[in-house]
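To the wet lab folks,

You asked to see what we're planning to order before we commit. Fair enough. Below is the target structure as tokens, and below that is the sequence we designed to fit it. If anything looks off to you, flag it before the synthesis order goes out.
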């Protein structure tokens, strides 16, 4: 989730998203990942996100907007994970 929430417009190029996995970066062995965006995936990002080439450092998804520290980002990430896990739990039940 940290990787997805941290996507910026700079990560989106030519129909794909390229980023460095946070987990591997923290371990000192950065792993670059490139994922192709299908038209459907791109439409979802356009609907719920903010894709704008003129602002490369802007987050695509709104969850980290306005955060000033890693502590704030971790707090928001944990909130998103809690909602996702609750939804998955409901589906499983």
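Sequence we intend to order:
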């Amino acid at each position: 989730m940290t990787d997805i929430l941290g996507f910026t417009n700079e990560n989106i190029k030519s129909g794909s998203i390229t980023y460095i996995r946070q987990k591997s970066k923290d371990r000192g062995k950065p792993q670059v990942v490139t994922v192709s965006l299908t038209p459907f995936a791109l439409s979802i990002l356009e609907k719920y996100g903010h894709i704008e080439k003129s602002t490369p450092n802007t987050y695509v998804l709104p969850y980290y907007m306005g955060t000033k520290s890693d502590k704030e980002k971790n707090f928001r990430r944990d909130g998103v994970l809690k909602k996702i896990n609750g939804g998955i739990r409901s589906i499983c039940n």
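Structural context that might help your review: The first strand starts at residue 12 and ends at 13. Residues 70-92 form the longest helix (23 residues).

Thanks,
Computational group
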